[in-house]
Amino acid sequence: MFEDRSWKLVLRRTARGPVIQFRSSTPQTRESTMIRMGGQLAEEVFKTMVEVLKKYDYVIAEGGDESRYKWYRLKPEIGPVVGGFIVLIRRSRQPQDWIPYFEGLIKQDPYKGAHKLLREALATAFALSQDYPPPERVRMQLHPKVLDSVSAGFKVIIRKLWGIKKK
C-alpha cells in the first residue's frame, strides 16, 4: 500500500500557531497533506521527532527557512511509522505525554512490533478515508473523524500491549 511513496514531515508557522503536516506523494501524484496537527506544543513535538529521526539516520533531506517553514524528507521505510505515530497523538490533549515513547517506538525497543502497529494505524486511516472522504474545507487527505477513531482504537491497543499508562 505504501510502496513508491515519498514522505515529508513539515512544520509551518502560521498566524494561528505552529502546525505539523505529514505529507506524501507518489511518482504519479503531486504532494498532498495527509495529516495536520496543531496546538501549542506542535513545535516541541516536531523538534523532538526530528531529533530522534536524525539520530537513527531516517532523514534523507531537509529544507525550508527556519522562520516560517521547515521540512524533512523521510526514508520510505520509516515514513508510514511516523505517520502512524502522528495519527496516534494527533488529538491527544497532552501530546507531550507521548513524546517520551517516540524513540522506543522508532527503534522498537522495548516495543516489539511497533513499526508494524504504527504502519497499520496509518493504513487503517487510509482505507477508511476512501469510504469517508474528508470535506474540501479540511485541506488534508484523511478524514478527521476517521483519524480520531483510529487514534482512539490504537491507543487502547498500545496501552494494553506494552503497558503504556496515561500520565
Content of β-strand: 15-25%
The total beta strand count reads 5
Give a quick account of the main beta sheet: strands, pairing sense, barrel closure.
Answer: 5 strands, antiparallel
Cα-atom Rg, whole angstroms?
15 Å
Terminal residue distance: 34 Å
Name the shape in a single word: globular
**How many domains make up the coordinates?**
1
Low-pLDDT stretches: none
Into which percent range does the helicity of residues fall?
Answer: 40-55%
From N to C, what is the helix and strand string?
EEEHEEHHHH
Helix/sheet category: alpha+beta
Write a concise keyword list for the protein shown above.
22% strand, 5 helices, 167 residues, five-stranded antiparallel beta sheet, alpha+beta, globular
Walk me through this protein's architecture.
The protein contains 5 helices and 5 strands; from the N terminus they run βββαββαααα. With 167 residues, the protein is of the alpha+beta class. Helices cover 43% and strands 22% of the residues. The protein has one domain.
Short description:
The chain has 167 residues and is of the alpha+beta class. The protein has helices spanning 42-55, 79-89, 99-107, 114-131, 144-162, and strands at residues 6-14, 17-25, 32-37, 59-65, 69-74. It has one domain (6-162).
Secondary structure layout:
Layout: E1 6-14, E2 17-25, E3 32-37, H1 42-55, E4 59-65, E5 69-74, H2 79-89, H3 99-107, H4 114-131, H5 144-162
Antiparallel strand pairs: 1-2, 1-5, 2-3, 4-5
Helix pairs in contact: 1-3, 2-4, 4-5
